[in-house]
Amino acid sequence: MHSNLFSPPAQTFFGVPNHPLVFDAPRADRICVVYAGLLRHLVLSNHHRHQLQALGLDELAIATHGYRSAPSPLYGSFVARALSRDHDLRNVPGFYRAGGGVAHD
User: Fold this and answer.
1) What is the DSSP secondary structure assignment for residue 1, as one 8-state letter?
2) For the segment 40-95, what is each residue's pLDDT rounded down to a tens digit?
3) What are the sequence ranges of the domains in the chain?
4) Ramachandran assignment for 56, one of left (phi > 0), alpha (psi -120 to 50 degrees), beta (any other)
């Protein structure tokens, strides 16, 4: 008998049935909309701008590629709350729910 890789095994392990991992993957267009919203809330710090320039990037390249600095945890929580008012952040990579509460980045 051949096993189907996408079917859960009928066996149990220490009495606990094996269940397939259920993951509600968001659509790519939803992820793009959330990330675009995230980028609108972020800026590039002067320190990071100078580092990019030291690597040879000019202002046009920095603007074209949309470089931003990662937010502090406090500002990241604020941004995630703001984004969650307009977007479903469940299963969007980079966002999580701390203690079952509001989504963070």
Assistant:
1) -
2) 999 999 999 999 999 999 999 999 999 999 989 899 889 999 999 998 888 888 88
3) 26-104
4) left
